[in-house]
Amino acid sequence: MPDGVSEILRFVEGWGRRAYPVRWSLRDAITYAVAAGADAHNGRALVWESAPGFGTLATFATRFAHGALLDFAAGTQDAGLPSFARSNRVRVHRPLPADCDDAVASATLGVAAHTGGRLVLRLGVGTTAGGEPIADSSLDVHFRLPGTRGAQRPPSPARDGGEDDGGWTVEARETVRPYQAAVFRTLLGPTAGGRMRDAMHIDPAESRRLGLPAPALPGEVTLGIVARLAVQNSALLGAGELRGAEVAYLRPVSDADRLVIGFAPAGGGTVRTRAVNGDGRVALRGELHFHPDSARWGTP
Fold first, then answer.
1. First CA to last CA across the chain, in angstroms?
2. Quick one: pLDDT at residue 184?
3. In this structure, are residues 99 and 32 in contact, taking their beta carbons and an 8 Å threshold?
4. Do the beta carbons of residue 228 and residue 36 sit within 8 Å?
5. Which of 126, 213, 236, 286 is 20 to 30 A off residue 104, Cα-Cα?
6. What distance in Å separates the CA atoms of residue 71 and residue 78, rounded to the nearest whole number?
7. Quick check: 272 and 266 in contact, CB under 8 A?
8. In the chain, what's the furthest Cα-to-Cα distance?
């Protein structure tokens, strides 16, 4: 009988390139912003369609991989290997419209790493409309292999927040509201019905079994919170519009968690960021990429 690793590798080999229709509405864009904690007080331009400068968070482009993620989950869940997302990258080529009904996402799947105790798959998605690029994103998914600790990396003081890497130009504090993960699940559709194993994001009992005080936020929600706060503080950071992000998810964030999020310009429109959870652990670390000035930007 074939083992789970062999089944997954055969699935990857047979993936090829898959295309998915992508449609989103004003309601979807606002729902994503609300899930990321935006409201009339701290993100009116993201949730109030009549507000001057109403826009869509660039990290909403992570949603364009939704159809591919469904197929990915369906093809790997029976292999019996626990998996988790570790890193996420997204880049938008132009400001995202509030709605779109004719985009196409093209998805590829490959092996990013495969050693004796480590298997990492990379799902890459490029989205276009009218033949013009809209956004690119990729997600690394780590599988925990039998007889090993799998993709878990050994802790280090810097990674877990015991060592302050400092230099934060802006620090923002945010309390995660219990409704945020629930709101986000309205975007997930069938994924919350069992096609993806997301019990840790839904079921309090399963969350406690995994050592979490409450259901964990999906990584996209944590990234959305960071993006929203970065946009709010873009003037202090000397940055223009948000164009993308490259982040690693290191520790879970749960409902009612209290986050401390730091931002530090690194030149050329790049802003370093990290989010520390209520346990003092670094939950997310990476870089945000902005247009280097405050002018509206077009397609590069």
1. 51
2. 83
3. no
4. yes
5. 286
6. 12
7. yes
8. 61
* Single pTM value for the model: 0.87
CA-CA-CA-CA torsion for 168, 173, 176, 180, nearest 10 degrees? -70
Pairing of strands 118-129, 170-175: unpaired
Backbone angles phi, psi at 272, to 5 degrees: -70, 150
Cα distance between residue 277 and residue 175, in whole Å? 10
